[in-house]
Amino acid sequence: MSQDKVGRYEWLNRRSACRNQRLEVFFDTVRTGDGVTVSDFMVVRPLIRTTGNVCGVCILPEVDGKIGLMRVYRHQLNEEVWQAPAGFVEVNEAPADTALRELQEETPVRCMPDRVESLGLYLPDAGLIDGYVALFVARESVLSSDHSGTDREIGVGGLHFFDRTALKRLVMSSSDVGGSTLVACLRVLSGP
To answer: What angle do the packed helices 164-173 and 179-190 form, to 10 degrees?
Structure first.
């Protein structure tokens, strides 16, 4: 069986297009192996990244053996989507610490740090985003009555819990599940 030849190209230069507090957008100029020059190859680079190029996290809260997902309004789609708590890493913050922080900011769920389990890394869009998302599950979490974090995140709705069967049905049939959430759910479903 032969391997396909990878169409490598040459990077020529980069110009900044815009930036905000979290991301910088570049237009790279690249030349293909057959001489075609592309002057607007877009790259989105998070401003803060950890060792291993991790720029964000996604964490699935597990309460009583069920996985919690939120309904979140996304204006660019003009619809609600299923999403797990997620966010950007901060300077000198380990991804597992970011995951616990995001869980606390976005939900009434609390988890002991030693119960945060890695589900590995994920490339959200290898053709666009320069960075990885670290995926986690917060095992044996509990619902807290003290929850003031949700109102700090725009568009975040309530938390809904799914047993393994319902979660599998959701991720296998729904078109409105965020990418990091989808990959994290599939990885947690493939485990014990």
So the answer is: 140
pTM value?
A: 0.91
The one-letter code for the residue type at 118 is: S
Inter-residue long-range contacts of 35-42, CB under 8 Å, 24+ positions, other chains counted: 37/12, 42/17, 42/128
Residue pLDDT tens, the chain, 192 long? 456 667 789 999 999 999 999 999 999 999 998 899 999 999 999 999 998 999 999 999 999 999 999 999 888 889 999 999 999 999 999 999 999 999 999 999 999 999 999 999 999 999 999 999 999 999 999 998 765 554 457 777 889 999 999 999 999 999 999 999 999 999 999 987
- Provide the strand spans (E) within the chain: 9-19, 23-32, 37-46, 54-63, 66-74, 79-83, 86-88, 109-110, 116-122, 132-143, 156-162
d(CA 51, CA 179): 22
Determine phi and psi for 57, rounding to 5 degrees. -140, 160
Give the tokens for residue 104: 């606390």
> What's the CA gap between 66 and 29, in Å, rounded?
47
- Name 43's bridge partners: 26
